[in-house]
Design goal:
single chain, alpha+beta, seven-stranded antiparallel sheet, 28 helices, about 50% helix, about 15% strand
């Protein structure tokens, strides 16, 4: 393989170079599933039971010599198929958009800027920045590395981390210890590398993988819907066979009997259930993405409505994660600064040591704040000396260590910054100094500042950890000289207090879990509106057994100085009490807690790839308000799916009744296959698009969380739905009885049946959209508006064009439209009265359920 061009290492590729190489080499895609083409979607649509039944009905018409009826039915098959294909294509586009959002992000340097780009946009020659928690999406040659270790088990099967180091010459090398490979995981350290291979040219791409073939198991709701459809399909088959045989024997015509059976099957078969789930979940996930919430697992959407506890981090979730270094304290002086102020000469040494303990890329907010104030106060733009070693924060090491050779007239400098309680015992301080510094820490923290300590060691001090040791044992850190304290302000997000108030109304507890000190956590929690009666630290958690922790979590809402292991224990303690827990996390070690939580939520901006892979949701802007909106949306989506399924159960009842009338009582066939197609043109978009677009009820976030055991279709809910359908069937049957009493002919009876079914359909639609009150879904629901417009236009065409009316078996003539309008008006009045009764029954049932 030809080595990448190296002349742009300092600034990276230009945007033009990146575009040219992307066009030349193609996108960096390691695993590419087969896309669903239009042909595949069309075949899938035409293989649905409804279309097979329509084709069977058309075949029967052709066999009995009614070619015109067969062609008309085939034309209707085409119309319904086009609608289904359009809806499927739209869902595919939504899913493709979400997949694009879910694509891993990589950090690259281009034109001197550090950018986050979608990994499929990586090109050969890109300067790649890697850090702990990154999942690599390309092969790359190391240029610089600091305590870098990778998990290469995906390629080698070896579970032990593999140490990586930059080549001694500084030039790229293809030796394994100097290479990074696609699919591997950075478990420690950071570094820079130059992309050497992408896509199928990577080691992983050449080996191939079975990951693309893995499928997500169906969710609880999917399994419930599948079981419901199976039961209805079995019952429908038996009913249709019996009905077809009875009508054929009564009329002496098996062809008519088969048509009756097929029509009844079309009226009963619940093929819309699959459409409801697919469309609702896809569009629901898309709507969430518009509010900066990426759904990685469909199960998360249905679980959101059951969430009773939100465990959230402070930094970046409740706060902006825009650190401003406002407080400096040394043994001699202290000062509070404005956001744009510079520090005077008294703090030069403190800032210099802090800058040498900060990452050179300045991506971490506190590092950026330190380097900005250091430079603003007259410090050097580039730090002196050569960086020999860098150790990041680890569970047993809550501080950063950077070891430098040369600079400042010393052979070696060890610069350290981190939690004051971790560094103070390692510094050369007496009891008086320790007490004074502790008071200063508490003073700064009580103002809501995040406090870091800074210390150093000069000369030929021992290294803070053996290069080959994973993480470097903290015991090898030399005795340090105290430099001072840094106080960072990270303002609370403006929308957090209102979001927490919303959670409180919705019966959802918010628990803040942070690595900050207790005083800082209490100050921010108080601003956010959380209960700060007691703040529990990680050290206190260590002394508690599981039973004591479970008791504690019933009362405490703020935890400070916690580790990832503490997060896991808190999640499990809450779950043991029956709570459904949503947990936020961003680091590699948070992955366990994210997996253990009912809904794992990863940070999109500061989160690691490992955390995102373990999570069900990703907050693209790390905002707590977005998480609360996701809970709101989860409740709305489940409610709308539930109403849609109940509507489907109800709306098929009058259609089945009309199909069975000639079987049970004799007389002409009222409902033909073409009529069922016409009704399906209402039902299909109604059950999916109209219900999906229905807004939330005003009381949605004032209810307690839905118990996780609540079924999508309960016996009580199914009984109400079938009862509403029975009322609608009474309307339809009453219109038929009136028509027969008045001596209407077959065509007029059929028109009355179809008209009353349309009215019953719309009445049931509004009833279930209304959630027991005046139709909430009818207000501002554009999908419903377009459905009504389409229904009006198609009805006018069918009734106004005589050949088309005859093909539908309906009367033709100038007075038909007026007669149909009168029938619709009469049925609508009766339906409105029944609808009012239905609303009262639903409201009473909902109150009883609550």
């Amino acid at each position: 393989m030809v080595a990448p061009i190296l002349e742009t290492l300092d600034t990276g590729l230009s945007d033009a170079q990146a575009r040219e190489r992307l066009a030349r080499d193609g996108p960096n895609r390691l695993l590419r599933g087969k896309p669903r083409t239009l042909r595949v979607i069309a075949l899938a649509a035409l293989s649905q039971p409804m279309f097979l039944l329509l084709l069977a009905a058309a075949s029967v018409y052709a066999l009995v010599g009614s070619a015109a009826d067969a062609l008309t039915l085939l034309g209707s098959v085409l119309v319904v198929a086009l609608i289904a294909i359009y809806q499927d294509l739209r869902t595919e586009r939504v899913l493709a958009t979400l997949k694009e959002l879910a694509s891993p992000r990589s950090r690259v340097r281009r034109e001197g800027r550090v950018l986050h780009v979608a990994s499929h946009g990586l090109v050969r020659g890109d300067v790649l920045l890697v850090a702990e928690g990154d999942r690599l999406a390309c092969d790359a040659q190391l240029l610089d590395a600091h305590a870098l270790a990778l998990d290469e088990s995906l390629l080698s099967g070896e579970s032990m981390p593999v140490r990586k180091q930059a080549p001694p010459t500084g030039d790229p090398s293809h030796e394994p210890q100097h290479m990074l490979f696609a699919g591997t995981l950075v478990v420690e350290g950071d570094g820079e590398a130059i992309v050497s291979a992408t896509g199928a040219h990577t080691t992983l791409g050449r080996i191939g993988s079975t990951l693309a073939g893995l499928s997500t198991p169906p969710s609880r709701v999917q399994a419930e819907l599948t079981q419901l459809v199976r039961r209805i399909a079995i019952a429908a088959t038996l009913i249709c066979l019996v009905a077809a045989a009875v009508y054929a024997l009564r009329q002496g015509s098996w062809s008519e009997g088969v048509l009756v059976g097929l029509t009844l099957a079309m009226a009963i078969v619940p093929e819309e259930f699959a459409v409801v789930w697919t469309v609702m979940m896809a569009l629901g996930a898309w709507r969430l993405s518009q509010h900066q919430v990426l759904t990685r697992q469909a199960q998360a959407i249905e679980a959101l409505g059951t969430t009773s506890v939100l465990c959230v981090d402070k930094t970046g979730t409740l706060t902006h994660n825009r650190m401003a270094l406002l407080a400096l304290a040394t043994p001699e002086a202290s000062v509070m600064l404005g956001a744009s102020d510079a520090a005077d000469a008294r703090f030069t040494a403190l800032l210099d040591i802090a800058a040498h303990a900060s990452a050179s890329d300045g991506l971490e907010p506190m590092d950026r704040a330190i380097l900005a104030l250091h430079q603003r106060s007259g410090g050097r733009a580039t730090r002196q000396g050569q960086l020999l070693q860098r150790l990041g924060v680890a569970p047993a090491r809550p501080y950063v260590v950077q070891r430098w050779a040369g600079g400042s007239g010393h052979s070696e400098t060890v610069a350290v910054k981190g939690a004051p309680e971790a560094l103070l015992p390692r510094c050369l301080l007496d009891a008086v100094e320790l007490t004074r510094i502790d008071r200063e820490v508490q003073r700064l923290a009580s103002r809501g500042l995040r406090v870091l300590a800074v210390a150093y060691a000069r000369g030929g001090a021992s290294a803070p950890g053996a290069p080959g040791a994973p993480g470097g044992p903290s015991a090898s850190l030399p005795r340090l000289e105290w430099a001072g304290l840094l106080g960072f302000a990270d303002p609370l997000r403006e929308d957090v207090p209102a979001a927490i108030a919303t959670c409180r109304l919705a019966g959802i507890r918010v628990v803040m879990i942070t690595g900050d000190s207790s005083a800082t956590a209490a100050a921010i929690a108080r601003q956010a509106g959380l209960d700060v009666t007691r703040v529990v630290s990680g050290a206190e958690l260590e002394l508690l057994d599981d039973e004591a922790l479970a008791s504690l979590t019933r009362e405490v809402s703020v935890f400070a100085r916690v580790s990832p292991q503490h997060k896991l224990r808190i999640v499990r303690a809450l779950q043991a009490q029956g709570h459904v827990v949503a947990m936020t996390g961003d680091g590699v070690n948070d992955a366990i807690a994210l997996r253990a939580a009912n809904i794992g939520v990863a940070m999109g901006q500061r989160g690691t790839d490992v955390a995102r892979e373990a999570a069900a949701l990703v907050l693209l802007d790390d905002s707590f308000a977005a998480l609360v909106h996701a809970v709101r949306s989860g409740r709305r989506i489940f409610l709308n799916v539930q109403h849609s399924v109940n509507y489907l159960l109800a709306v098929h009842v009058p259609i089945v009744v009309v199909s069975l009338l000639p079987v049970l009582f004799g007389g002409p066939v009222l409902l033909l296959p073409l009529h069922v197609v016409f009704l399906e043109l209402i039902i299909d978009p109604a059950c999916s698009l109209v219900f999906e677009a229905a807004p939330e009820p005003a009381t949605l976030m004032t209810r307690a969380p839905r118990p996780a055991s609540v079924r999508l279709v309960s016996l009580r809910g199914a009984a109400r739905a079938l009862g509403a359908g029975a009322l609608a069937a009474l309307v339809v049957a009453g219109v038929q009885l009136l028509g027969q009493t008045l001596g209407w002919g077959e065509a007029w009876l059929r028109l009355a049946a179809l008209s009353s079914l349309v009215v019953a359909n719309l009445a049931l639609l509004l009833a279930f959209l209304g959630d027991g009150s005046l139709p909430r879904g009818a207000r501002g629901n554009r999908a419903l508006g377009w459905l009504l417009v389409g229904l009006g236009v198609s009805s006018a065409l069918v009734l106004g064009i005589a050949p088309l009316a005859l093909r539908f078996g309906l009367p033709a003539g100038p007075g038909v439209l007026w007669a149909a309008a009168a029938l619709l008006m009469a049925a609508a009045v009766l339906a409105a009265r029944l609808l009012r009764l239905r609303r009262h029954a639903t409201a009473a049932g909902a109150a009883q359920d609550a």
